[in-house]
Amino acid sequence: MRILITNDDGINAPGLKVLEAIAAEIAGPTGEVWVVAPAFEQSGVAHKISYTHPMMIAELGPRRFAAEGSPADCVLAGLYDVMTEAKPDLVLSGVNRGNNAAENALYSGTLGGAMEAALQGLPAIALSQYLGPLNFDEELQFEASAAHGAATVRALLDQGHWDSADYRIFYNVNFPPVPAGKVKGLRVGPQGYRRDASFGVEPHRSPSGRRFLWIKGGAQHLPTAPGSDAALNLDGYIAVTPMRADLTAHDALDALKARLE
């Protein structure tokens, strides 16, 4: 199996090393793992593509490249510049440091990479590691994803729903904020919503007196609806959410047609 991996934390991020190990286990001894990751951190860029300016790409080693662009850019670079002999069989994005559950999914560059792969007609999975009091120490941060990542990916490859729709399914996987031994199992759930936890801004002044704004996130440990992604994570489960890039509110179409047409 040929696997392309990317992330949004950057080419030197520890979570990328975890994903390389996961991908190597899935690819097997005769497979190939190719890395095309951002040269610098791209957290929060969502599905951005850099079509207004070129990006430099550098080969750092065998099958390892850094690109000055977003995760979606890196997927495009991987497909159309790096892996020109044959497309990958699978694209993995992550492992993100921090959860991409609930509303975080909408901002996530990690999901942006997986989404672009799906739009290119490829199976894709985004993987993120929830952080909390039980795993915030550096040596524990990626323990759950490192221990359970390969089995989760393999379960999705073997038993997940994969289609060839125009907006084909990709998967969002979030590992719970606990050490590996405390993971209770895997559960499937929808994207949740944290109430009263939206992003905002916090103003600061520089020593020169200029005013700057920092984007400030909300509380990450507020529970979402029972059975949804963040709630499952906070209960100790690996949360798997099937997603599509189609933004249409299908539940509102018929009523809107009746009123407007």
Description of the molecule:
The protein is of the alpha/beta class. It has a single domain, classed as Stationary-phase Survival Protein Sure Homolog, Chain: A (3-Layer(aba) Sandwich), CATH 3.40.1210. The protein is built from seven helices and eleven strands. It has a nine-stranded mixed sheet, sandwiched between helices. A two-stranded antiparallel ribbon has the order 9-10. Helix 5 links the parallel strand 6 (about 125-130) and strand 7 (about 170-175). Helix 1 packs parallel to helix 5 (about 145-160) and helix 2 runs parallel beside helix 4 (about 110-120). About 45% of the residues are buried. The model has no long low-confidence stretch (mean pLDDT about 95).
How do the strands and helices of this protein lay out in sequence?
Blueprint: E1 2-6, H1 14-27, E2 32-38, E3 57-61, E4 64-67, H2 71-82, E5 90-97, H3 104-107, H4 109-119, E6 124-129, H5 143-159, E7 170-175, E8 185-188, E9 200-205, E10 211-216, H6 229-234, E11 237-243, H7 250-260
Parallel strand pairs: 1-2, 1-5, 2-4, 5-6, 6-7, 8-11
Antiparallel strand pairs: 3-4, 7-11, 9-10
Helix pairs in contact: 1-5, 2-4
Spatial strand order of the main sheet: 3-4-2-1-5-6-7-11-8
Q: Would you list the SSEs in sequence order as H and E?
A: EHEEEHEHHEHEEEEHEH
CATH superfamily: Survival protein SurE-like phosphatase/nucleotidase
CATH topology: Stationary-phase Survival Protein Sure Homolog, Chain: A
The N- and C-terminal alpha carbons lie at a distance of 50 Å
Number of strands: 11
Q: Work out the radius of gyration.
A: 19 Å
Q: For the record, what CATH class applies? A: Alpha Beta
Query: Considering DSSP H and I runs of 4 or more, what fraction of the residues is helical?
Result: 25-40%
Please state roughly what percent of the residues sit in beta strands, choosing from under 5%, 5-15%, 15-25%, 25-35%, 35-45% or over 45%.
15-25%
Overall residue-averaged pLDDT value: 97
The biggest beta sheet is recorded as: 9 strands, mixed
Q: Could you say which overall geometry the principal axes of the C-alpha atoms support?
A: globular
In the predicted model, the low-confidence regions spanning at least 5 consecutive residues are none
Q: Helix tally?
A: 7
Main structural class: alpha/beta
